[in-house]
Amino acid sequence: GQNIDQPTEMTATEGAIVQINCTYQTSGFNGLFWYQQHAGEAPTFLSYNVLDGLEEKGRFSSFLSRSKGYSYLLLKELQMKDSASYLCAVMDSNYQLIWGAGTKLIIKP
Amino acid sequence: GAVVSQHPSRVICKSGTSVKIECRSLDFQATTMFWYRQFPKQSLMLMATSNEGSKATYEQGVEKDKFLINHASLTLSTLTVTSAHPEDSSFYICSVSPGDYNEQFFGPGTRLTVL
Asked: Residue A87 and residue A47: Cα distance in Å, rounded?
């Protein structure tokens, strides 16, 4: 079966760095996405990785290792507004998105 | 990205009634739109893929006669929850996928509460 695993909840301090991991087992791979979802709102697109390596976009970076079925989202200089759920999603060989359950990130002052 | 709107943003209805949710792609002609449902503290669940001018493709376990989807134009798809029951209370979100990476852009969602 297809499976996406990410931690349920993480806590970090304002100004610090946090890494949210995602491991996946899917039938085929056509890219991995990270989305941010604030409570009561729809997800917003953060990043896309299809090749191995690190993609940096401002305070957010996303890493992919296809051989390990592993990705992480790195958030630097954390701000209170970064408190949200972070969803990992993988596009399989049929171009279907398989969603993880999301990681709730709590930022403390 | 793409701009997607949904209407209404919030709806409360009585059990047994039908509710229509509209999804509009404001700056992109979408031949395909996606409908998701999200229960509290759970991830997104794809309900169906809405295809302009043809029948929607429903995911396993989603009743097509209960969740009616109409995609009459390139900018509008509607989801009608028929004979709604309290267990249909959820956050319904639509999305389009215009991007180079097949990334999806979501509407703001509709929170349905069935009493």
From this structure: 11
In eight-state DSSP terms, residue B59 is P
Closest in B42, B46, B91 to A101, CB measured = B42
Res. B1: pLDDT tops 80: no
Residue B100 binned pLDDT confidence (cut-offs 50, 70, 90) = low
A79: burial class by Cβ within 10 Å (0-12, 13-18, 19+)? Answer: exposed
Distances (CA, A) of B9 to A100, A103, B63, B107, B114: 25, 25, 23, 10, 14
User: What pLDDT digit, counting tens, does each position of A49-59 carry?
Assistant: 999 999 999 99
- B107 shares contact with chain A (CB less than 8 Å): yes
Q: What pLDDT, on the 0 to 100 scale, is given for residue B94?
A: 95
Cα distance from N-terminal residue to C-terminal residue, chain A = 40
The order of strands in the sheet holding A53-57 is A3-5, A18-25, A70-75, A60-65, A53-57
**A24-33, A100-109, B35-44, B93-102: which has the minimum mean pLDDT?**
B93-102
Of the residues B103, B110, B113, the best mutation for testing chain A's interface (the one with the most A CB atoms within 10 Å of its CB) is B103
3-state SS string over A29-78?
CCCEEEEEECCCCCCEEEEEECCCEEEEECCEEEEEECCCCEEEEEECCC
